[in-house]
Amino acid sequence: MRKLRLAILLGTLIASHPALAARCGGDFNSFVASMSSEAQAAGVSASVTSAALGGLQQDPGVLAFDRRQRYTFNKSFEQYVSTRVGPGRINGGRAMLQRHAALLARIEQRFGVPRQILVAIWGLETDFGKGDMGKLPVVRTLATLAHDCRRSELFQGELLAALKIVQRGDLPLQDLIGAYAGEIGQTQFLPSSYIKYGVDFDGDGRVDLRHSVPDVLASTANLLHTNGFQMGGSYAEGSANFDAMREWNHAVIYRKTIGYFADQLVGR
After folding, report:
1. 211-221 pLDDT, tens digit each
2. Which of 67, 92, 150, 181 has its CA 20 to 30 A from that of 7?
């Protein structure tokens, strides 16, 4: 799953950030100093940039993982869905629908995204928050990828967004932990999406996509709603809602898997 998400990320998001001034390659410390200046110019405090970027070192494991990727997806839908949606995960998803029924009803009312779609995404990404959300310091991961010249502009933007998460008080720096491209939380938001779509749905004054189920599910719904998902419509391939899910993942097979899983959860 993570390889597929990373392939889509790298293939489609490069144009989503404005041009940034820091140059890739060269001395890493000089690059980090330049990014610190950029962050402060964008409104991140000196205290946050100092804590996040001071003494930062590259992560060779992140680069090694990045180099190993082959950005293709050559399984059929039937092959893929058989590895992702089995009886155990379906039963787990149905249990989540029952456990969070009141919460999901409120989210449906506000955002117009059906509960089974949200629970399907939640289950596929991190097994309803019980699975692997990643164990890497997000700032170190993104700084490593931003310094690398392959997709520097993309990851510079994500690094700035990660610093803004800390600046806003959504997550403390020590809890800003994620996967190999900086994805965060129970439905694996990139930092830029965290900033753009994150919702404080539990009312505690911050957006916590690692620990707060209300924030996780509402933010996922907000992403889909903002991109045109409408309640009551089909989400089958070729539908407007299927197209709206492209913001979540451009891969047709993955979006079909979301729909298939969602239908299994409600007995269709």
Report:
1. 999 999 999 99
2. 92
Which of 40-49's residues contact partners 24+ apart within 8 Å by CB, and which partners?
42/160, 42/164, 43/164, 43/167, 44/160, 44/163, 44/164, 44/166, 44/167, 45/167, 48/163, 48/166, 48/167, 48/173, 49/163
The separation between the first and the last C-alpha atoms of the chain, rounded to the nearest angstrom, is 24
Q: How far apart are CA 159 and CA 165, in angstroms?
A: 10
**Alpha helix positions (H), 127-200:** 138-147, 152-168, 191-197
Does 228 score more than 90 pLDDT?
yes
Query: Is the confidence at residue 49, as pLDDT, over 80?
Result: yes
Rounded to a whole number of angstroms, the CA Rg of the chain reads 19
Distance CA 154, CA 162 (A): 13
Active-site residue identified among 38, 108, 125, 183: 125
- Compute the distance between CA of residue 185 and CA of residue 177 in angstroms, rounded to an integer: 8
What pLDDT is stored for residue 66 in this prediction?
87
Is 183 annotated as catalytic?
Answer: no
DSSP class per residue in 208-255: -TTT-HHHHHHHHHHHHHHTT--TTS--STTSHHHHHGGGT---HHHH
